[in-house]
Amino acid sequence: MEELKSDLAQNIKQVRKAQGVAQERLALDAEVDRTVVSKIERCVGNPSLDTLLKLANRLNTTVSALLAPKV
């Protein structure tokens, strides 16, 4: 489970930064609290599927891509 959280954290952070989007902007656009994004990126959050869908949609990617392991 921790590895999955780590992969999710790294993927969200990488995609977010590649798009030049701040945590706060991502949260506002995805209609989630900024602390949710922060917790996910620090591996301390346990987001719902609904939250993952909102973030993936805002980042123009899929939930499966956000959960994909790093190679």
* Poorly predicted residue ranges: none
Per DSSP, the total helix count is 5
Reported for the largest beta sheet, the result is:
none
Q: What fraction, in percent, of the residue positions are helical?
A: 55-70%
How many strand elements?
0
Arithmetic mean pLDDT: 95
Share in β-strands: under 5%
Separation, N- and C-terminal Cα atoms: 17 Å
Radius of gyration: 11 Å
The dominant shape is globular
Instruction: Write down the secondary-structure element order.
Output: HHHHH
Using brief descriptors, characterize the structure shown.
5 helices; mainly alpha; 68% helix; 71 residues
Q: How would you explain this protein's 3D organization?
A:
By secondary structure, this protein is mainly alpha-helical. Helix content is 68%, strand content 0%. It has helices at 2-18, 23-30, 34-41, 49-58, 63-67. Helix 2 crosses helix 3 (34-41) and helix 2 (23-30) packs across helix 4. The two termini are 17 Å apart.
Put the structure in a nutshell:
This protein is an all-alpha fold and 71 residues long. Helix content is 68%, strand content 0%. The longest helix is centred in the first third of the chain and has 17 residues, at 2-18.
Q: Helices, strands, pairings?
A:
Blueprint: H1 2-18, H2 23-30, H3 34-41, H4 49-58, H5 63-67
Helix pairs in contact: 2-3, 2-4
